């Protein structure tokens, strides 16, 4: 029996225009799970709220652009402009119902210049990735706290709030998603990320080797073989940690 392979690479997509970058109005987060906003807050984090480009995009870029190289030192991605970042969010987050990006609002610091935030200041972003109803699992990722809010309560409270949202049962009040496993993946050298995860009850499970091909601009990785088809782009290993429902019930919460 003969066979053919008729696969063709997809055609490059044209850049998103400004309207497409900011998404529809009202903004459709397109997340396949209920957003229990009453669970997504603590006494210091007013709330984790869906990231809306028209509301949060410029604030995000204003806070990261001047320190971009340092902030993204351990990330496997790089954006050179707000437009690139918004195109990334549209393609990989809003278009995927298993992903959602959330803005962190710190209610201990009012921002009188931006009353549209509902009180408090935007302090960073945090995301859920690959959230599966079939496997009852997700991953906390894209945890980025703005420089002015680092070494404060923000990262701890945002992570804790998200764990409550994921691991509380739907029958509880306030309700959660009732997931069984929450994963955290970190660059092996990102000590701040690893400390935060362990402090929040995540347990180390091992290292996945060669999980990312880094952009050529990122040199903090491992060199591939000389004939590697993506050389000279370096590779990245990933440390995997997780907190599961039984850890949660046995004291992590």
Describe the structure in your own words.
The chain has helices at 18-22, 53-64, 68-71, 82-94, 154-167, 191-199, 245-252; strands at residues 45-50, 100-106, 121-132, 137-145, 181-186, 203-213, 235-244. The protein is of the alpha+beta class. The protein has one domain (18-252): Gcn5-related N-acetyltransferase (GNAT) (Aminopeptidase, 3-Layer(aba) Sandwich), CATH 3.40.630.30. Strands 1-2-3-4-5-7-6 form a 7-stranded mixed β-sheet, sandwiched between helices. One of its GO terms (molecular function) is protein N-terminal-serine acetyltransferase activity. This is N-acetyltransferase domain-containing protein. InterPro entries: Acyl_CoA_acyltransferase (IPR016181), GNAT_dom (IPR000182), Ribosomal_N-acetyltransferase (IPR051908). Pfam families: Acetyltransf_3.
Short description:
This protein has 253 residues and is α+β, with helices and mostly antiparallel strands. The chain is built from seven helices and seven strands, in the order H-E-H-H-H-E-E-E-H-E-H-E-E-H.
């Amino acid at each position: 029996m003969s066979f053919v392979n008729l696969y063709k690479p997809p055609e490059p997509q044209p850049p998103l225009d400004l309207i497409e970058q900011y998404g529809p109005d009202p903004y459709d987060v397109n997340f396949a799970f209920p957003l229990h906003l009453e669970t997504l807050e603590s006494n210091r984090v007013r709330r984790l709220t869906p990231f809306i480009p028209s509301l949060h995009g410029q604030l995000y870029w204003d806070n990261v652009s001047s320190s971009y190289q340092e902030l993204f030192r351990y990330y496997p991605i790089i954006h050179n402009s707000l437009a690139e970042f918004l195109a990334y969010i549209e393609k990989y987050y809003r278009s995927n119902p298993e992903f959602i990006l959330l803005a962190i609002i710190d209610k201990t610091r009012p921002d009188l210049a931006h009353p549209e935030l509902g009180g408090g200041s935007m302090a960073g972003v945090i995301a859920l990735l690959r959230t599966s109803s079939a496997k009852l699992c997700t991953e906390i990722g894209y945890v980025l706290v703005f420089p002015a809010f680092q070494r404060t309560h923000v990262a701890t409270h945002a992570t804790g709030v998200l764990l409550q949202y994921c691991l509380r049962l739907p029958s509880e009040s306030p309700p959660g998603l009732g997931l069984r496993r929450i994963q955290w993946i970190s660059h092996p050298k990102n000590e701040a990320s690893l400390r935060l995860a362990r402090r929040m009850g995540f347990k180390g499970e091992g290292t996945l080797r060669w999980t990312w091909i880094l952009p050529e601009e990122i040199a903090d990785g491992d060199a591939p073989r000389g004939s590697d088809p993506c050389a000279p782009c370096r590779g990245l290993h990933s440390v995997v940690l997780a907190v599961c429902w039984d850890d949660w019930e046995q004291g992590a919460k």
